[in-house]
Design brief:
Layout lengths: L1 H53 L2 H29 L12 H5 L5 H11 L5 E3 L4 E4 L3 H10 L5 H11 L20 H19 L1 H19 L6 H18 L8 H17 L7 H10 L5 H18 L18 H8 L9 H32 L1 H16 L6 E2 L5 E2 L8 E4 L2
Antiparallel strand pairs: 1-2, 2-5, 3-4
Helix pairs in contact: 5-7, 7-13, 7-14, 8-9, 9-14, 10-12, 12-14, 14-15
InterPro entries: Cyt_P450, Cyt_P450_sf
Protein name: Cytochrome P450
GO molecular function: heme binding; iron ion binding; monooxygenase activity; oxidoreductase activity, acting on paired donors, with incorporation or reduction of molecular oxygen
């Protein structure tokens, strides 16, 4: 009985001790929970306070100005890239003329007048409706083709870039797409200036233009209903360029050449449309990666590539051995200067260069010959008077003596030399 009582009391003590320990553990656990809760509340409050600091007015404006600064830096880099890629006539190095620089392709006539004023020593003939500038200085030709033709090539680049992809394994592409490399661009312009310089020395251009005038006047007399100023002048300029390039004269009723002319005219018309009017088309072109002149470019390139293959059939990896089956045209000049400019140029690149020359040259000739064509066709008597006036001024020694690459002086300037007509 006593043992049972002792055992019961011992059990009560054990239970009491266990309860004490449990209560102590409970207090410790409560303290731990309180500490954890306090830590969580502190973290949340710190996060809230940091969030409030993030969205403060000072941080908001600083972030805004940082974004604006980044945008300005990107615009500045793009402007620097464009300035190095294209040479503007007056700026944009001078901010006062940046509007003239941007809208140069819309002010061709005014800028040509400025160009003429920069060369007052050139022979000028004043007629009853305009002023004729006789440009027969190789340095001036070089200035026009190199300094001015590039300005119109930015739109051409955007279209040809879809057609003429960068080929792997070729570290140099044609100057059409990557004009700022200035390697193949120099090939085009040096060969063109050299060729025109040789034509001046041989007095060949006068004969070519006279023959084309006779053909064109006979064509207009028999097809007066088909006369359109833009299309007719474009065709006239293209006939001149084609005869100079391939030493062959095409008749105006040649169906094959007429198809080629129409395709090239469509390209020119598309490229030189108003930029604002075709903004949506350009956006769709960039999104889809398709050019609206892609198939036309393929047609024209096929024509030119066939001509290049016929003239330059033997491809070789040796840059010092480049042969040609003919001589005396622009292709021959390009082939001559290709080894000194870029080592990996094939027939496709040469065809792209020819297309670039035709596009630039036809547009420049079209703008320059517009008034000349109308003047000669509509006013033949006044044209003869202007020609005699030019000859008399040359006889009086009032014109500039021009020295060509052949070291021969052109003391006498014909009216139909390299003639640029600027309408007043």
């Amino acid at each position: 009985m006593a043992e049972n009582i002792l055992s019961n009391s011992t059990a009560d003590k054990v239970v009491e001790n266990v309860e004490k320990v449990a209560s102590g553990v409970g207090k410790v656990g409560g303290k731990v929970v309180d500490m954890l809760q306090e830590a969580v509340q502190t973290t949340v409050s710190d996060t809230d306070s940091s969030g409030l600091e993030e969205f403060s007015i000072l941080n908001y404006f600083s972030s805004f100005f940082i974004h604006i600064a980044l945008i300005v830096i990107v615009i500045g880099l793009k402007w620097q890239y464009d300035r190095n890629r294209y040479r503007y006539p007056k700026g944009p190095r001078d901010w006062r003329h940046i509007s003239d620089a941007i809208s140069f392709h819309r002010k061709k006539r005014e800028n040509l007048l400025v160009l003429a004023n920069d060369y007052p020593q050139m022979c000028t003939v004043v007629t009853h409706v305009g002023r004729v500038i006789l440009l027969n200085d190789p340095s001036l030709i070089n200035e026009i083709f190199i300094g001015r033709a590039d300005l119109c090539s930015n739109k051409i680049d955007s279209y040809l870039e879809n057609q003429l992809r960068y080929k792997t394994g070729k570290h140099l592409r044609t100057g059409i797409v990557f004009r700022h490399y200035d390697h193949n661009g120099q090939v085009i312009h040096r060969s063109l200036v050299e060729h025109v310089d040789q034509i001046l020395a041989q007095n060949k251009l006068d004969q070519v233009i006279q023959e084309q005038f006779e053909q064109f006047r006979s064509y207009l007399s028999s097809n007066s209903s088909k006369f359109d100023v833009r299309r007719s002048t474009f065709r006239f300029a293209l006939h001149i360029l084609t005869q100079l390039c391939i030493n062959r004269t095409f008749k105006y009723d040649d169906k094959v050449f007429e198809t080629f002319t129409n395709n090239l005219y469509k390209i020119s018309k598309t490229i030189h449309e108003d930029t604002v009017a075709k903004t949506s088309k350009v956006a769709l072109t960039q999104l889809t990666g398709l050019s609206e002149t892609l198939d036309i470019n393929e047609t024209v390139l096929n024509y030119i590539q066939e001509w290049v293959k016929e003239r330059h059939p033997n491809e070789t990896t040796d840059d010092s051995q480049v042969t040609s089956t003919s001589s005396g045209d622009i292709l021959d000049s390009i082939i001559k200067v290709v080894p000194t400019a870029a080592p990996h140029i094939d027939n496709e690149d040469v065809a792209a260069m020819i297309l670039d020359v035709v596009m630039h040259g036809s547009e420049m000739l079209k703008g320059a010959l517009t008034w000349l064509l109308l003047y000669v066709v509509k006013y033949p008597h006044e044209a003869n008077e202007a020609r005699r006036e030019a000859n008399s001024k040359c006889d009086d020694g009032k014109t500039l003596t021009v020295t060509t690459s052949g070291n021969s002086a052109l003391d006498r300037t014909e009216f139909c030399g390299i003639t640029w007509v600027l309408k007043i």
